[in-house]
Write a structure and sequence with these properties.
Blueprint: H1 4-12, E1 20-21, H2 23-30, H3 34-43, E2 49-50, E3 61-64, H4 65-78
Antiparallel strand pairs: 1-3, 2-3
Helix pairs in contact: 2-3
Length: 79
């Protein structure tokens, strides 16, 4: 069974450190507030992966370049 964590690990194999962002870094890149980024992650609008795999109360979200591209496409489709 494929998981989002596994997909992230597979994707990371070809990534550099600059290809993954914290929600705050992604927000700065997108020109939105960190609060908006967190809300969009929780709502499923901004794709992100919890590196803790959902096994912890503390989330460790990371956003990839592909996630940001998908978010931009969704926003543009709604415009």
């Amino acid at each position: 069974m494929r998981t989002s964590w596994g997909d992230l690990v597979r994707a990371k194999l070809g990534m550099t450190a600059k290809d993954m962002f914290t929600p705050r870094e992604a927000a700065q890149l997108l020109g939105i507030s960190a609060t908006k980024a967190w809300k969009d992650i929780c709502a499923g609008m901004l794709p992100a992966t919890d590196l803790n795999g959902g096994n912890s109360k503390i989330k460790c979200w990371r956003v990839t370049k592909a996630d940001i591209g998908e978010y931009v496409a969704r926003v543009e489709d709604r415009a």
